[in-house]
């Protein structure tokens, strides 16, 4: 069975720009099922856990600052190969080169900030997805 769950976050730039509905719509139109959702102001401790793999990198502090700069929307999406599927829908990390048609390619661009603002987060593996879902939905 290849049915999976992934954690999707609409980051503060996406919420500020009113793109929550657009992201939800793309996930649902693709055919994945959203099985949990909440809006929150993420504090430092939750973000440190979520982004622990990036601790120590030059963009870590700007990333935490950006991610706590406004509300975010966390959701769980389910479906066969949804982890890979949502990463494809999101596009690559850098919105300047993310493919047109992807969320980052269509909706984001370089804002000249220390951290890349790119609308969404999506888990990158089964292990990350299970770990990250526990952080936001425990
Ligand atoms: P991903 O979100 O595409 O999985 P990651 O490498 O996990 O990318 O990085 C997490 C987030 O940190 C990115 O989405 C982006 O917001 C930011 N980021 C990643 N790499 C850089 C960088 O080299 N400079 C600035 N910000 C970065
Ligand atoms: Mg990542």
From TrEMBL:
It holds the Pfam family NDK. GO terms for molecular function: ATP binding; metal ion binding; nucleoside diphosphate kinase activity. One of its GO terms (biological process) is CTP biosynthetic process. PANTHER family: NUCLEOSIDE DIPHOSPHATE KINASE (PTHR11349). Coiled coil: none annotated. Belongs to the NDK family. The keyword Nucleotidyltransferase does not apply. It comes from freshwater metagenome. Its EC number is 2.7.4.6. Its cofactor is Mg(2+). This is Nucleoside diphosphate kinase. The keyword Magnesium applies.
């Amino acid at each position: 069975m290849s049915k999976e769950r992934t954690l999707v976050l609409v980051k503060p730039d996406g919420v500020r720009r009113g793109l929550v509905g657009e992201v939800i719509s793309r996930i649902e139109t693709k055919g994945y099922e959203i099985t949990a959702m909440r809006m929150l102001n993420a504090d430092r401790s939750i973000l440190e856990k979520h982004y622990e793999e990036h601790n120590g990198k030059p963009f870590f502090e700007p990333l935490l600052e950006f991610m706590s700069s406004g509300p975010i929307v966390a959701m769980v999406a389910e479906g066969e190969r949804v982890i890979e599927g949502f990463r494809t829908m999101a596009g690559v990390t850098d919105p300047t080169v993310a493919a047109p048609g992807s969320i980052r390619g269509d909706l984001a661009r370089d804002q000249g900030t220390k951290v890349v603002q790119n609308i969404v987060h999506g888990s990158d593996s089964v292990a990350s997805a299970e770990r990250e879902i526990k952080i936001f939905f425990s």
